Amino acid sequence: MDIRKALSTLEPGGTLKVNKQKVSKWLAGALPLTLLAGALAACGGGNSDSGVSPSPASPSASSGGASPTASASTDPTQLSGTVKIWDWDETFQKGMIPEFNKKYPNIKVEVTVVNPNDYLQKLQSGIASGSDVPDIILGEEAYRGKLFDLDVLDNLEQAPYNFDRSSVLDYTIPFISNSKGQVVAVDQAITPAGFAYRRDLAKQYWGTDDPAELEKLLSTWDDFIAKGTELKEKSGGKVLMFPGLGDAFLVLRNQNVVPYVNGSDVDLTAKLKGPIDTLFKMRDAGILGKNELWTPAWSASMAKGEFMFYPMAPWGPKWHISANDPEGKGRWGLVKAPEAGFARGGTAVGIYKDSKVKEAAWAFVNFAYQSEEGSLYNFKTFGNMTSNKAFYEKEKATFDAPGAYDEFFGGQNLARYFLDNIIPDMKGAPQSKYDSVVDSVMNALYPLWTKDTSITADAALEKFKTEFKNKAPDANVK
Amino acid sequence: MWPYLFSLPFVAAYAAFQLYPVIYSFVLSLHDWNGIGAKTYIGFKNYVQLWSHDPLFVKSLWNTLIMMAMFIPVTLILGLLLAYWTFHLVRGKKLIQTINVLPYITTPVAIGFIFSYLFDWQTGLVNLLLVKFGWVQEGVYWLQNPWSSRAVIALMVIWRNLGYFMIIYMAGMTVIPQDVYEAAKVDGSSGFHTFRKITMPLLRNISVFLVVTSVINGLQLFDEPKLLYGGWSGSVQVGGPDNTALTMIWRFVDVSFISDTRFGYASAIAYSLFLLIVVFSMLSYRLTAPKEDQR
To answer: Are A360 and A58 in contact (CB under 8 A)?
Structure first.
């Protein structure tokens, strides 16, 4: 601001009138708050097609006849149009789009890089104002349930997509279905998870670093706690099981896939009582560290060897472990979690229900995340594993061959381990808009449970319910 | 005719980009709307819910007021002292000015980074120093303790705004005529006495301006707490420990974009906040402005 000007109104003897104006001017500055909400809605009444890309010249798009995909499946060159996609992983799209265009030369795919943290907010603003909506929408774990409940994604089992839910791994179906049971997305990649572990520490304190042996040692959570106590004692408290309560809790919560939402009835007891009880047993046994997820200390701990386990899905070797422990080649391993596999992360890819280029959009989604060519490229280049069942039968040899991070994990075949040891007993968790509330309450509470060890499991669950109700007053919480 | 025509661009732009959204968001606050589905008119239910059944909103109001009570007086006093000291510097005045204003022009995200690194429980610099000098056994969990978390946020605001306050006060000091000081000197006043009897009263209007604007800005506190609690990373922690760092705007953002998508309810929060700002800025003006100005 212009200080001199401001001061001239504020000199001794400057009158009240001037000051009042000043105040009201500042009040006007306070308004953007209200404006924000208003601006979002300001064009809400407008038409929604203004920002959508021009209609494709696809011959089959106009009529929506009985078998609209027929031409697409017979001749990919017949499909054309411009498909807009919002993704945070630009590298993936930059690699995948040229592959796609080899088969579909007339479909142009435009990528806008959108941060996953802002994704839903940006999407909602775009839809509410009718300005800018992508044809292909990505739903990351943190907001997937919310996205599905907004009812903006098309049912993929209908024309023109005719997706067949039996073509994907059974456990993934809840992750791609909305609360009505419609399949509204496909998985970007499957995210079965186990634990990455430090081979050197396992060998030193437990006498083995063999995944099969460890699986036996850690078959239940009680075993896990017992082994953790042993580890803590043998190492003199220098090595613990998990870096923090956040890591342990996300495993326990994701293992419990019980449907806990029915309309506005939310059964938090069913979803969280077990996980919180086990979590507090671990905490009270002193086998958990005191790091919050994603903090610098948490990342640094991987290389330091202070903790045995880190929950890890197939995206973990690249983004977590090797990124934070670049010198750690050979000292990591992968083992199944006690009792059951669980899903960690995962992004669902759906199609906007008012898209003008549904067929072209589907052609890309199907190619990139489901087709054999796309899935093969995806696995070989990025290590992403498709949810398509048939692919694993056809490409068995690919998964028997060493993968990009197998060396880093002491020569263990990670893809095979995920497929053969972790996936078979996995179950998917139904998605709900309340998932993100659970997430947000969990993130707020676990640091407190870390700090204040006098909080009991029962008190923690009650606190969780109260916080949940504060954030979701429309829910009937049990 | 001409005057109207000439003022039309501003009036039209104001109506389209300010007045309409303001009115529209009021209309919106009377609805239940998720931004995409149908709008349902529900009268003043949002406001009733907000003021009688939303413990988080009430708590966020208190939190905001508590943090304001922490940082406004401190920034005012330190800003004034710093300005006084800098104003009378013979050498290095420009350097000191620049250094002190730097935080004010630093991007909030960087400030969030710096402070969350400083006050991290396990690896924070502050804790490392405290442990090194043996003042504490184990690091303090600054960001998970209700009062220390608020204090850290207040510290962020103070650190950021101190330079701005200093500049405004210094500008005020420039305006005070030198002959007043000379007259005071002749009458035997010096040092702290001159500061208290001449400088401070003549800067009163500056202080009023700073108090009123910081009350308005303080009620909109959001950047600092949000960024301190991982606004720059993937984890979404809203409200700090037990929501003791939750501010009103944070609540507003949480309701509309993070935990939920209730745009109608969020508009009700925004409107309530607007009314609170009007009330508090009038109050703060009444309390600080000289008597003769209060008409």
So the answer is: yes
Q: Which residues contact B231 (CB under 8 A, 6 or more apart)?
A: B109, B112
The minimal CB distance from A23 to the residues B22, B24, B281 is found for B281
Report CB contact under 8 Å: A27, B144: no
- Kindly report the CA angle at A12 between B166 and B192, in degrees rounded to 5? 55
Q: What value does the mean pLDDT take over residues A46-69?
A: 37
Q: How far is B121 from chain A (nearest CA, A)?
A: 8
Strand order in the sheet with A476-477: A261-262, A265-266, A476-477
What confidence tens digit (pLDDT) does each residue in A96-148 have?
999 999 999 999 999 999 988 889 889 988 888 888 899 999 999 888 999 99
Q: Which of B235, B269, B284, B285 to mutate to test the interface with A (most CBs of A within 10 A)?
A: B235
Number of structural domains found in chain B = 1
**Model confidence pLDDT, tens digit, residues B84-134:** 999 988 888 999 999 999 999 988 888 888 898 898 887 889 999 999 998
DSSP, res A176 = G
C-alpha–C-alpha distance, residues A26 and B116, integer Å: 30
**Mutate which of A3, A26, A34, A146 to disrupt the B interface (most B C-beta within 10 Å)?**
A34
Q: What is the reported pTM?
A: 0.82
Q: Which fold has domain A70-190+346-394?
A: D-Maltodextrin-Binding Protein; domain 2 (3.40.190)
> What's the pLDDT score for residue B277?
94
Cβ contact, residue pair A127, B36, below 8 Å: yes
**Domain limits, CATH 3.40.190.10, in chain A:** 70-190+346-394, 194-343+423-477
Of A4, A121, A450, the CB nearest to B257: A121
Using DSSP, state whether A191 is helix, strand or coil.
coil
* B148 in any annotated domain: yes
The CATH class of the A194-343+423-477 domain is alpha beta
Contact B242/A444, CB-based, under 8 Å? yes
